[in-house]
Design brief:
mainly beta; four-stranded antiparallel beta sheet; 37% strand; Kelch-typ_b-propeller; Kelch_1; NRP-like
């Protein structure tokens, strides 16, 4: 699927009525339409960041408050990115890697809702997009993805205060265009 396709929107818009059974869905739509976004949930809110609007890659971020059933634009990221990943870690949102319109990036940004702005964090060691990420224990993990035209089998982990380290190659082999979930 090309980052500019509308398929990802359609799937998300079909899901939205489940969030608001009252039937007043006019305010459930993202304030702007884009694909190639990343999403994470934290403290009763869904954060959707970056993506592609058909013309350019984006820095914009929106938050959906599940209690109020409304989208709000929050502070934009410093880097345009799509095909990236978003995770909630220690009460903050981390935007990881992705494609900035020219190249895959290794940059990492952190949003602290108490401060209301994005701060640059130590970059990953490997630039990548289309990868899986998750939090397990006290670490963020990133698995596989793509770097230019190469599918990766590299795993990195991040520990607060220690930064990123390559933890090895995955026994799963090369992987990209997937999601990961820890139960």
């Amino acid at each position: 699927m090309h980052p500019g396709s509308r398929d990802s929107f359609i799937e998300f818009q079909q899901f939205l009525p489940l969030l608001n059974p009252r039937g007043d869905h006019h305010h459930l739509h993202l304030t702007s339409r884009h694909s190639g976004t990343a999403a994470a949930d934290m403290n009763g809110a869904i954060y959707v960041a970056g993506g592609y609007d058909g013309k350019d890659y984006l820095r914009s971020v929106e938050r959906f408050d599940l209690r109020e059933c409304v989208w709000t634009r929050i502070g934009s990221m410093n880097t345009k990115r799509g095909c990236h990943s978003l995770v909630a870690f220690k009460e903050k949102i981390y935007a990881l890697g992705g494609y900035d319109g020219d190249k895959m990036v290794s940059s990492v940004e952190v949003f602290d809702p108490r401060v209301g702005s994005w701060m640059m964090e130590e970059p990953m060691q490997v630039a990548r997009g289309y990868f899986g990420s998750f939090v397990l224990g006290e670490k963020i993990y990133v698995i596989g993805g793509m770097q230019e035209m190469e599918v990766l089998d590299v795993i990195e982990s991040y520990t607060e205060g220690c930064g990123w380290e390559v933890t090895g190659r995955t026994a799963l082999g090369k992987r990209s265009f997937f999601s990961s979930l820890v139960l």
